[in-house]
Amino acid sequence: MPTKSFIRQLLLLRYKYISQKNFVYILSTAVGLLTGVAAVTLKNITYAIQSGLEEGIIFSKNQLYFILPVIGLFLVYLLAKYMFHKSMTPSIPPYIKRAIPSLLYALLRQKGLLSYKLIYHPLIMAPITVGFGGSVGLLGPAITSGSSLSSNLSRILHVDKKTRTLLIACATAAAVASMFKSPIAAIVLAVEIFSLDLTFASLLPLLIASISSVLTSYFFLGDELLFNFNVTEKFNPRDTAFYMILGLATGIASIYFTKMYFAIYAFFDRFNSRFTKLIVGGIAIGIMLYFIPPLYGEGLSFTKDLFEGNYLHALGSNPFDNYADNIWIVIVLLIGFTIFKAIAMTTTFAAGGVGGVIVPTMVMGSALGNVVAKIINNIGLGHQISEANFTLIGMAGLIAGVIHAPLTAIFLIAEITGGYILFLPLMITVAISYMITKTYMEHTIYTRELAERGDLLTHDKDQTVLTVMTLDSVIEKDFIALHPTMSLGDMLKHAVSKSSRNLFPVTDSKGMFVGIILLDDIRSVMFDQSLYESTTVETFMHQAPDYIIYEKDDMHKVMKKFHTSKAWNLPVIKDNKYYGFVSKSKLLTAYRTELINFTS
């Protein structure tokens, strides 16, 4: 009770002294600080686990490290079964498997309300997954934890749905800003993922949250950066064609990444037992780690080594050490890493691990960029290009292709390198990669399953409004149903005289919809008493111009059916029975109301 009383007093003071605009600014600051703390906690716990395991095991001649992912996944399995056995978000469909798709679905169908357990769940599960060698990242869990913080804070303070959506976007921006110390890229990612309007009303809270989170990261971690790259070689215009080749390579790799992601999940979905998935996935990851040690964990040290030109240390100790003096063997090993990073990451997820996608995508892109540079430098063209620059830009190309966030990719790499020296080659590679993947794959690993089920928000306001609207909100049930054998007299007495409608559904004894009658259909005979007993409803009944199937038709299809049929009312069929009507007037009124909510 004291807590509720305090919150009530706080809300009264807020309504009395703080405007809505300033209140949002205060909340975005709080979200930034809290998410920054969550991200720092996540990193510190993970690094503590890794430092306790790596010495004498990882990247050494003692190759027992390949069993660690199995142990980590088993610990996650036990925690999920006995500590987190209740679903974090019970109403989220099982086809949604990743953090960001879950947030997108919650924003659309659950008004942005997230379980408070999601605040600490990722802070426990993700460090165990990554610390024990799971080939996933930490950004996704940081976003989940921060988003849950902002959702529950907004619930306590009675914030409306629109503001809650903005605060969850602020949490996403804050997580990225804290992880990479790149506030501009963080803002752009939030806008690209959550389809926000880039107006001052949304931009300033995102900026405040990003700054707050970055300051929190500096306070706890100092100048330590996730990536610390200083570009020493400027862009050479003569290398333009090679950056175009890199864009082509990252575009193709992005398509491979996405297809492999869904293929591996489809394979693991065959197993009904979560424990079976753990065993199969753990063994598969262990085998991959034995032959390709850099697949262990996020892979950030691998990318740093490639940038510094220390590719032998990046590859670690592996069965092919005796051939490492041959550059083409090194290239083959790097290609193998590029291919298997996507496999190892998705296998970790499918086996029950918790983590993120973006950092593994960057690591895979860095390997691909380095491979392209090494091939160009060693095929006898007589032209040398910067392997470090290609390593960096390969990261951007794959981010743009895999998550369809080209602006995020450009600004992220520009910020983590401390300048815009590579801005032009970044744009070249990112544009080509994005165009290729967008042409062949309309949706990403974040959005495909949502889009297939009509649960995806986009920048298209018309599509977004129709997606947010629900069929139940526009169904009207105050129609008096008739039966085919009912006489005209009974129809007039029991239906027409008691209804304010000019439309009547006709159903059989089992409630099956068989047709409709309009008041215009009987207007010419309704006063002819000689027909009251001799004619029945079936005489005047006719088919509806179209039908709305409750289980199949979303609002996009409903709107299309009204457009093609030119009808003002369409019947709704549920479980093969009459359920109600949707009127065009109510549909358009509901549409306009939602549109105002999105644009105001």
Describe this protein with a few key phrases:
600 residues; mainly alpha; 4-stranded mixed beta sheet
Q: What does this protein structure show overall?
A:
- By secondary structure, the protein is mainly α.
- The protein folds into 3 domains: 6-221, Clc chloride channel, CATH 1.10.3080.10; 237-458, Clc chloride channel (Orthogonal Bundle), CATH 1.10.3080; 463-599, CBS-domain (Roll).
- The protein is 61% helix and 5% strand.
- The strands form 2 sheets. A 4-stranded mixed β-sheet has the order 1-6-5-4. The chain has a two-stranded antiparallel sheet with strand order 2-3.
- β4 (548-549), α24 and β5 form a beta-alpha-beta unit.
- α6 (139-156) packs antiparallel against α7.
- The chain is elongated.
- The relative contact order is 0.09.
- The model is unreliable at 56-62 (pLDDT under 50).
- Pfam families: CBS, Voltage_CLC.
- Its main location: membrane.
- One of its GO terms (molecular function) is chloride channel activity.
- It is found in: Membrane.
Number of domains: 3
> Can you list the strand order of the major beta sheet?
1-6-5-4
**Main beta sheet, described?**
4 strands, mixed
CATH superfamily of the largest domain: Clc chloride channel
What does the average pLDDT come to?
Answer: 83
Which ranges are low-confidence, i.e. pLDDT below 50, for 5 or more consecutive residues? 56-62
- Enter the CATH topology name of the largest domain: Clc chloride channel
Assigned CATH class of the largest domain: Mainly Alpha
Overall form: elongated
Number of strands: 6
Helix/strand structural class: mainly alpha
Rg value: 29 Å
Span between N and C termini? 37 Å
CATH architecture of the largest domain: Orthogonal Bundle
- Counting DSSP H or I runs of 4 or more residues, the number of helices is 25
- Give the amount of beta strand, in percent: under 5%
Helical content band = 55-70%
